[in-house]
Design goal:
The protein is α+β, with helices and mostly antiparallel strands. Helices cover 38% and strands 22% of the residues. The longest helix has 21 residues.
Length: 374
């Protein structure tokens, strides 16, 4: 029984006794203070720098606060330098360590030929937070995780990306919200931090909303039926021009709209009849895509003022459609590039528009006029 207790007593002395039993021989790089909450892990062994670094990463990833690494097979002359290098590596280069660790304290000692290193880790993010880190193989998967977080109105997300590529997630959030007005009611302000070095990184994103999470979810639920109805409004047998026209009529005949900018553009437009050119273009593009049509938003200027409109694919040709200008004239109209007087946009970022003759005039009973198509 005494033989079984002896190893346990040695480990406990190493962990809790400040290495006072170590023949008076130890090195401490920082003042050693026991944490308020102490969790013990089974001790690990390391025979070289690579082993020690791997063990230290495992300790940090598990959120362990106090433990011991046995180093009886580690060359004594290289031990101190190896431990110091490993601590710096974990706290600066390892993505989990750089994200989670405040500091690492260690003590090196030996007794009866059993060298060991006592490790004490102070965390800025605890073990519960570490367990919530989302894993992503690459930046493509990371963007999918961020999209899911946006649609659920999470306050943020922390990702461990194995094959990380520099990504402007703030811009991604803007683009995703623009493409998905049916699910993203408000575009949050994004704070982005990344941790670690090398091909793997931890990315921390914090989303700040002006509207409460519950309110945004209610808005999302109220807007969804409108988008669902828009798809049903489109005739399955009609050509592209007819479908685009029907969606124009569905959207523009809902309200006598007021031109105002809102932080919840889709909701304000579809539930209260207020919106700006950007809200109209984004909602219309989403409805078109839901109906299987190709439609994109264009950001530029009209008569020197910031403006947003659409480019759509009608058959085999692209055309511009400015919903608000159509509303002003009372007619749905597709226009080629040469007719976009007063508009300026990045011509290299969008397809060339136009090139088809006008379509025949439609019957007066239809909610659009084909003779206005160029």
């Amino acid at each position: 029984m005494k033989r079984m207790l002896l190893p346990l007593l040695l480990v406990q002395c190493l962990l809790l006794g400040g290495c006072g039993w170590l023949n008076g021989s130890y090195i401490s790089v920082t003042p050693h203070e026991a944490p308020k909450q102490v969790s013990h892990a089974d001790s690990i062994s390391a025979a070289n720098y690579r082993d020690f670094l791997s063990a230290l990463k495992q300790i940090v990833a598990a959120g362990t606060e106090v433990t011991a690494i046995h180093v009886e097979n580690y060359p004594e002359t290289a031990l101190e330098d190896g431990v110091r290098r490993a601590v710096l590596n974990v706290t600066r280069n390892d993505p989990i360590g750089a994200y989670a660790v405040e500091n690492i304290q260690y003590e090196i000692g030996s007794s009866s030929g059993l060298p060991a290193v006592s490790i004490t880790v102070a965390y800025r993010h605890n073990s519960t937070e570490l367990q919530r880190i989302c894993r992503a193989a690459d930046s493509v998967q990371a963007r999918n995780v961020v999209a899911n977080a946006l649609e659920s109105y999470e306050p943020g997300v922390v990702l461990l990306v194995n094959q990380y590529e520099d990504t402007d997630f703030s811009q991604f959030v803007q683009d995703y919200a623009s493409d998905h007005p049916e699910t993203i009611m408000e575009v949050p302000k994004v704070t982005q931090e990344q941790y670690g070095a090398g091909e793997s990184r931890v990315v921390e994103l914090i989303f700040s909303y002006q509207t409460s999470r519950d309110a945004l979810r209610r808005m999302q639920a109220q807007v969804k039926p409108v988008f669902d109805s828009a798809v049903l409004y489109v005739s399955g047998d009609g050509d592209d021009y007819q479908k685009f026209s029907q969606l124009y009529a569905f959207l523009m005949e809902r309200f006598d709209y007021k031109l105002e900018t809102s932080i919840t553009p889709a909701y304000s437009l579809l539930r209260h009849g207020t919106g700006d050119s950007r809200a109209f273009a984004q909602v219309y593009a989403a409805m078109c895509r839901d109906a299987g049509l190709t439609c994109m938003t264009v950001t530029g200027t009209r008569d020197g003022e910031p403006w947003t409109w659409n480019i759509l694919l009608d058959g085999e040709e692209y055309y511009h459609v400015d919903l608000l200008r159509c509303s002003e004239s009372g007619k749905y109209r597709e226009q080629p590039d040469e007719e976009m007087d007063g508009y300026v946009w990045d011509y290299s970022a969008y397809p060339v528009c136009g090139g088809r003759p006008a379509a025949p005039k439609a019957p007066e009973t239809l909610p659009y006029e084909k003779n206005e198509k160029i």
